[in-house]
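your task:
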Amino acid sequence: MEPIRYKPGEAIRWLETAADTFRKSAKNKGKDAVDPGRDRSDFKKVGANVADAAGALFDLGRSAWADMLHRQAEASEYVLQENHFDVVKGGSIKSVEYKRVTEISAKGDSVSILLDKGNLVIKPYAYIVSGRVKVPVGWSRNGLEVPYELMIEELAARCGVKLTNP
């Protein structure tokens, strides 16, 4: 049986776009703070310089955070094999045999997998928000976009346990 790879959905690329936007904003605000043509003679201008510099640092930090989240999501996947599944996060791979899973329970979008020794938690990498509606970003299952819940249901079926919602 060929392995089935679940990677975060294509919407994760928006994190990279957000990082670029924050980086450009920081660059523009930083230029304003050190602009040699700017009149720095009165106190209000000094406050504006400090505000521009602080805004640039804040945007630079947000761009770094979005970059880190994007890279972390890109390097993560769940691989369903014949007798076990692999949890790949960054450089680490954790293999779990299906028979070790005793319970899978979902609370909201967070899924807890109880093992004979230990547990795993699966959470969405990101959400799509529209007004008051918040939907978890789905998965790319061997290159095909699927809903977030599909991997959890398939994992429960392979483990032979019922998915519970407390």
Q: What stands out?
A: The mean pLDDT is 83. The radius of gyration is 22 Å.
